[in-house]
Amino acid sequence: MSINEYYVLSILAEELNMRKAAERLYVSQPALSQRLQTIEKRWASQIFIRSQKGLSLTPAGEQIISYVNETLQKEEQVRDQISSLHTEVHGTLKLAVASIIGQYWLPKVLKQYVDLYPQVKISLITGWSSEILKHLYDDHIHIGIIRGRPEWRGKKHFLLSDELFLVDTSIKSLDEIKTTNKPFIQFRSDSTYFQEIQEWWHNHFKTSPKRTIVVDQIETCKQMAINGIGYAILPSISLTANDTNVYKIPLYDDEEKRIERETWLLTHESLTQLKQVKAFINLVAESKKI
């Protein structure tokens, strides 16, 4: 079976949906279905069960997909090792970054990187820091960028630290929180960030917020705050010079120190030998000096 057929099975196992898999593979559903039938004949086993709800793996299919993914991963590792032998930077750079970093910090850095190294392919995952750490431990990525202080024994580089602000269009001091009828707008985040905010809140107000609104994305949270719907606690990385129509109240801990959120770049020591990984780390280091 060819590597292309391995890739087809891997995408089908990820999506478990013929339409979505066909879209990712840029083929029609009938063509994909026919190709799957051919692959299954070669294995002499049914790999997927088809139903109106989508696809599900058979027991044989689970074994086959495990083998397929392991083979694809090894094939990519060999390609990376071969590309590291060349003088130019080639290969695939596999990144996983915290969603907030992917939205506000990464685009500018990634634009510089692809301009400098156009031969490198970019694989990017965004999500919570806990998910990114799992990708690192499972060797699914080259570089992870997470929020908060990491417990990581591999290579790590401090990237930035940004302060937390309570943001609102009319509230000028924390004392006004006690009397306002506005809701506290929160965005879903990893458990450490949520816990940090909860601890700060209860240390200052000794009670829960009167009203809350929870949204999925930090940008939604920010837009609701700057449009006067409610107040929010946002990291400074999400605030720009154009956000002039809101009050930004800095948060302090019990020792009167500004509350900050750190961002770290993590990788495995062995992966820094790959040219595309080393080039990205060097670019980030240089951008910090500017």
Short description:
With about 290 residues, the chain is of the alpha/beta class. About 45% of the residues lie in helices and about 25% in strands. It contains 10 helices and 11 strands.
Notes on the structure:
The protein is α/β, with parallel strands linked by helices. It has 3 domains: 3-83, Arc Repressor Mutant, subunit A; 92-160 and 262-289, Periplasmic binding protein-like II (D-Maltodextrin-Binding Protein, domain 2); 161-260, 3-Layer(aba) Sandwich (D-Maltodextrin-Binding Protein, domain 2). 43% of the residues lie in helices and 23% in strands. The strands form 2 sheets. Strands 3, 4, 5, 6, 7, 8, 9, 10 and 11 form a 9-stranded mixed sheet that branches. Helix 1 (3-15) packs across helix 2. It starts with a helix and ends with a helix. Keywords: DNA-binding, Transcription, Transcription regulation. This is LysR family transcriptional regulator. It comes from Bacillus taeanensis. Pfam families: HTH_1 (PF00126), LysR_substrate (PF03466).
